[in-house]
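Researcher: Structure prediction, please.
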Amino acid sequence: MAKQKVAMLTAGGLAPCLSSAVGGLIERYTDIAPEIELIAYKSGFRGLLMDYKIEITKEMREKAHVLHRYGGSPIGNSRVKLTNVADCVKRGLVREDQNPLRVAAERLAADGVTILHTIGGDDTNTTAADLAAYLGANGYDLTVVGMPKTVDNDVYPIKQTLGAWTAAEVGARFFDHVSNEQSASPRTLVIHEVMGRHCGWLTAATARAYMQRTQHNEYIEGLMMNQELKNIDGLYLPETHFDMEGEAARLKDIMDRTGFVTLFVSEGACMDEIVADREAAGEEIKRDAFGHVKLDTINVGNWFQKHFAKLLDADRSMVQKSGYYARSAPANYEDLRLIQSMVDLAVESGLNKVSGVTGHDEDKAGRLRTIEFPRIKGGKPFDLGTPWFKEVMDYLGQKYRPIH
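Model: Predicted structure follows.
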């Protein structure tokens, strides 16, 4: 058998799984094939293009278990699309006369890499798919195996992406503290903006985790610190449409009765309406290398704040975002188990020359397998028919209808 060499990289935004996935890959290869050399490209595909890499030493292998304790990425991230030549040239990653895919392929070949592991979301793994296709079409003998991370849980056809469970739990813990702001001033509107560009899974799952976290709290009857103060009053997702006047009337009744209203909002909720309004006003909407609207410039939470604060006669209103706090957390128990199973399959697939993305395939009865790259794509919406989502909305007493 030809000598094997493994490289890994993490890319895209952070998720509570990257550090553990890197640690898991190092541990697994060290356990079953300790003779294989391991390297990591620093800061994702950027490091691959720029030849920035980390040699995984004997000491790193021995201490790889430590990585399971941390969030973030121990090898760094970046957002780079190898097929967006103009962007790669603009950022100084390649020269104008170079094809980023070819530069990446030649770097891998020069480094002697036979297996590349990409840990990222749909953008990362579709970029990995482009790279794998280029490698195959141009005679490079290299296996590419991706692992799916994204707190949005929005990758076709994968049932559960790495890091999403943790992000929901940590987002709920974040808001458990923020919700106490309702006691700081009469007629307060608090909006919790949660990550989720096209998919409301994380916002809904965070709301569910928050409700589970607070439902058994003990309170002193007659004081303001009570279950009503801890309640969520509205939940708004990219997949749902709501009647502004009807919601305003419902929430105004709650505000008049209790003195506070709490809303959970996906960062992509009502995004199309907001973008259309701003473009109609002549404003240029900024987009990233993948063509996605830069959500931090849209500020969906502020849009909800502006509209609802006025409609509810709120004396005080605020938007709190759990995104960076949640996505930077270390993986929880459920995610650690999921990571381990995907790591084991990723290593097995790499050694058996099977390229693709590991995950529970919704089109194959939810079986954990290495899914073919052409079938991987992002933007999978949250299934509003999910039983626990109906339970959440019934508890809130909120009416909604699907957008599509």
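Model: The chain is about 40% helix and 15% strand.
Researcher: Thanks, that helps.
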